[in-house]
Specification:
Blueprint lengths: L4 H15 L33 H37 L7 H6 L3 E7 L4 E5 L3 H19 L4 E2 L3 E3 L2 E9 L8 E7 L1 H13 L13 E5 L4 E3 L11 E11 L6 H11 L1 E7 L2 E6 L4 H12 L3 E10 L18 H4 L2 H4 L2 H4 L10 E6 L17 E2 L13 H10 L16 E6 L6 E3 H13 L4 E4 L1 E2 L5 H12 L3 E5 L17 E7 L17 E4 L3 E5 L3 E5 L2 H18 L5 H10 L20 H9 L10 H11 L1
Parallel strand pairs: 13-15, 13-17, 14-15, 17-19, 19-20, 20-21
Antiparallel strand pairs: 1-2, 1-6, 3-5, 4-5, 5-6, 7-8, 7-9, 9-11, 9-12, 10-11, 12-16, 12-18, 22-23
Length: 623
Amino acid sequence: MRRRTLLGLLFTAAVIAFAIPLYPTMRGTNHRTPSAFPMPSPVPSRVPSHPSASNEASYKQQTVLRDMEATERLSRAQIERDIQNFLKSKDAHRPIKDLLRTHPEILYVEWGNGNGRQKAGSLKPELATAVATHLTKARTAVKQGSNYSSPTFKHGGKSYFVLARHSSEVAAKQNVLAIVSTEVIQAVERHQRRNLRLIPYPPEGRYRIESVTPGNNKETTVRTGEDNGNASHYAVDEIVVKFRKPLTEKQLLQLRRELDLSVVRHTGKTYVFRSKKHKTMELKKYFVDKYKPEFIEPHYLYLTNELGNDPNSKSIIPNDTLYSEYQWNLPEITTELGWKVTKGSPDVIVAVLDTGVQADHPDLKGRLVPGMNIVDPSKPPNDDVGHGTHVAGIIAAEVNNGEGVAGMTWFTKIMPVKVLDSSGAGSTYSVAEGIIWATDHGAKIINMSLGNYAEAEFLHDALKYAYDHGVVLVAASGNDNTERPGYPAAYDEVIAVSATDPDESKAEYSNYGDYIDVAAPGTSIPSTYPGSRYAALSGTSMASPHVAALASLVRAANSGLTNKEVMELLRRTAKDLGQSGKDKDFGYGQIDVVSALNSASGSSTSLQLYPLQVRRELERLNK
């Protein structure tokens, strides 16, 4: 390595830190290259960073297909691993039904040991006929001491594959055959078509929806997914009003009589009303004329914005089964090096405001604290969509437990706050109430992988409340490839996150603009998924929890930092991408875990502590 004498004397530690390769292709034989989840086309033929609507739609379709393919590989890898473990530990006291219990996607399973076969599960006659050929091939393979994996095939609108594994120990002579449903692949397809805005805003759920152009509330019509990028959606029969003082019982009774109103929710001077007779704009005129409130606005809706170690090694490589082959995202942002500084703290709680979290996912054991279901307070905050569980796993999936994926933190706790319903949509009030609840119950960081294009003052009030109480607020920018500011990300109190691809370019679906603070990996991110499964999803929804997780690590490294100082540190230590300095695509750059944690802990080895021109010179010398 060439060094100038003066720079070498002044910045030796920084050069050594920077000399550790950051790209997966340079990280040694223990790791895979970024081709584990291949991009849809070679980099030179990529569409522009801000493509046309047709190119953007094509790119998003390719992203959905890539996520489906990656999810299938994750599913196969995890089941193959668990079947092999079953074969190693199989004895007379362990029934074959154990596999069905731990893997509900396995519909039918056989175990043989040379003296007979045990069977569990059942198949409908039509499916049994469709799978017969694959089962015959599987049985033949294990008799010959071979393994078998069928291609994925469709039947009745669903897809399946057949898997057969035999024991590598000749004396054991054991084998397992399984018929596996890949319903999770179809779930990912549905999820990502909505998450990446390939379809119009979902009409499911309670909400009667209308759309307006952000900024002027002029009514507009959303016919395609592309139209979502220039529209804000609201419940057509509801209105949010903040009065100058709380209403009296007499005033409320008068409103019920005159407008046939009911109070949906109420906090202090702010009310959400619902009317059986009048629409939002009619209600707005009435309240402006009669009460002259502090503010009045539609009840906007928000949608998900959705990709054992050597003690002398410089990196910490976890043993999670899907990590080395599939998780390009954590090495990309130097997470393994950052873990040498801190792995997090159980005292730091990240609230995930989302669709809920699967509480009993095996890779989230012990990582959840009590949460809240804002949508239905009578029920626990369970995930009925998949989005929230995936976000939670990016932050806090158990690390080094030989199971599934690794989260960015080893000890950080997740507080599930369900603010989005089974359609992936939630109201302004739900999100605001979730922010306040999480703040009052000890959250140090709040992740919001959701958004809209309308400024909602009531939501902003809640964000200010959390910010004033020291909470670090992080939000996804959105997946419409638009420069229009998305909220809550664009509020000053919030860190706005865009998404990057494995080649460190801006993901084509990612929103951009002057309000972007930092970027993080967002494409084909493997993580936990409901049904105790794993899936790969893409979107700024996946980028945002990387930043929230890093904020939790920073707070573990230095608990004395204020939320403002944490946010500034994340910006200052980011790896500059794109145009020199802050830009619309990456903000201050892609987050850099080791630089952020070195800076938080006061280490002099943080390259990012030095001026940009010095960093660039060190980079040049390091090549």
